[in-house]
Design brief:
267 residues, 4-stranded antiparallel sheet, 10 helices, 12% strand
Length: 267
């Protein structure tokens, strides 16, 4: 049966199908696909729903949160290695899960991570220059992964936390976040909470390198807006919209990546 016959043809039908699901939505649910679907099925579903929910089609952005969910699902399922890892984590993988397979997936995802940065370097520079001229939103530094401190008890007040102070593993996602800015605003998880590891050019290093006592990655963002310094550290799956006044750095003190889990060790 052609894929298009199984996909909702209206927003109302789509929302009704979702409301009938008794469990949390996964990426396959969002695209109305079976976990055994083909690459072509994924591509077809993505374009079908992206067109349905796009503001240009609707005449407004009422369903932009659905479009964001569709984009996130497609970003993961259209990537062969992210999809395999996603299926393993969510119990949809039929093959044997071996250490060798996980290592191979990790290596390939790291390669894609570096390739993404290289391929988008020129675009990144153009975007930063554009935001600079407008005194807009510029991502100065962004780290994603285990941002807990190696020695939190030794942390001195008014000392900026640097990379050397962090346990890791973590990855630099400065370029990736700058590319996600639209109309001077960065929206993360505006649709439904999902791991930042599924964003374009990301992967979650904690999926492959476990850290004792840390079960969830954090995202640190240092950014400029109207030439003022801002910073924030977020738990994975958080919903956030940048810029925010509450992120403003007062004076010259930049805290740096500060995971809330550090407070447990400092108590």
């Amino acid at each position: 049966m052609p894929v298009e016959l199984s996909l909702s043809q209206t927003v109302e039908d789509y929302l009704n199908k979702r409301s009938n699901l008794n469990k949390g939505l996964n990426h396959y649910d969002i695209l109305e696909l079976d976990p055994k679907c083909s690459k072509e099925d994924i591509r077809h579903s993505y374009y079908h729903f992206a067109k349905m929910f796009h503001p240009d089609k609707r005449g407004n952005d009422e369903y932009s949160f659905l479009l964001d969910q569709v984009k996130t699902a497609y970003e993961t399922l259209s990537n062969e290695y992210k999809r395999v890892h996603y299926d393993i984590v969510n119990g949809n993988y039929d093959g044997e899960v071996t250490e060798e397979k996980l290592v191979a997936i990790y290596d390939l995802m790291r390669q894609k991570y570096y390739t993404f940065i290289t391929e988008n370097a020129e675009t990144y520079i153009l975007l930063v220059n554009s935001e600079f001229i407008q005194q807009g939103l510029i991502i100065k530094k962004a780290l994603y992964g285990n941002l807990t401190l190696i020695n939190p008890e030794e942390l001195k007040s008014l000392v900026t936390i640097e990379n050397k102070h962090l346990k890791g593993p973590y990855i630099d996602v400065t370029v990736q976040l700058q590319l996600l800015i639209q109309n001077g605003v960065l929206n993360l998880n505006s649709g439904a909470p999902t791991s930042f590891g599924h964003l374009p050019g990301f992967y979650n290093p904690l999926d492959f390198e476990r850290s004792e006592g840390v079960n969830e990655s954090q995202l640190y963002i240092l950014y400029l807006f109207k030439n003022n310094v801002h910073e924030v550290t977020l738990n994975d799956h958080s919903c956030v919209r940048l810029p925010m006044k509450s992120h403003l750095v007062y004076g010259n003190y930049i805290k740096g990546p500060f995971s809330l889990s550090n407070l447990t060790f400092m108590a």
